[in-house]
Amino acid sequence: MIEVNEKKVPWSENMTIASLLLTLEKVEFCAVVRLNGKLVSSPNFAKATIPDNSKIQLLPLVAGG
Q1: Cα 40 vs. chain centroid, distance in angstroms?
Q2: Could you tell me if residue 29 is inside a domain?
Q3: Is the pTM of this model over 0.70?
Q4: What does the alpha-carbon distance between residue 3 and residue 30 come to, in Å, rounded to a whole number?
Q5: Can you give the residue range of the structural domain that contains 25?
Q6: What is the mean pLDDT of residues 51-62?
Q7: Within a domain: residue 43?
Q8: Is pLDDT of 63 > 90?
Q9: Which of the two ends of the chain, N or C, has the fewest CB atoms closer than 10 A to its terminal CB?
Q10: 2-8 contacts: CB < 8 A, separation 24 or more?
Q11: Could you tell me if residue 10 is inside a domain?
Q12: How many domains in the chain?
């Protein structure tokens, strides 16, 4: 199991941030994800594997002026 935004989500071997985002419903575009306290930017989502028991925070893109 992993935790995504404080909700339990099933974990699978070789899971990446990109594959996780495809399985989640109602996910806003995330430019950055915090994986176990480390920031991962969107160009690296397909390469960033998620270990079991990880804590993930989805950080949506916010625009302002």
Answers
A1: 9
A2: yes
A3: yes
A4: 16
A5: 2-60
A6: 90
A7: yes
A8: no
A9: C
A10: 2/50, 2/52, 2/53, 2/54, 2/55, 2/56, 3/54, 3/55, 3/56, 4/56, 4/57, 4/58, 5/56, 5/57, 5/58
A11: yes
A12: 1
